Amino acid sequence: MDPLRSWLRPAGGGLYTVSTGRQEQEALQQALYGVNTSAQIESAWHRTLDALPQARGAILGIPSDTGAGLVRGAAYGPQALRQAWLRRPGQGPQSVLGLVDAGDVRVVPQLLADEMLSEAQIAATRAALYPDTPAALAATWPVSPLSLAQAALGLMLQRNPALKLLVLGGDHSVAWPVVAALAQHQRQPWAIVHFDAHTDLLETRMGVRYCFATWAFHAVKMLGQGARLLQLGIRASGRDRGHWENAFGVRQLWADEVNGQPISRTVDQVLSHLKGQGVRNIYISNDIDGTDAESAPATGTPEPRGLRPELVLAVIEALGHNFNVVAADLVEVAPPIGDPEGAARTCELGVSYLLASAAAML
Question: Which of 126, 242, 262, 276 has the most CB atoms around it within 10 Å of its CB?
Answer without folding.
Answer: 126
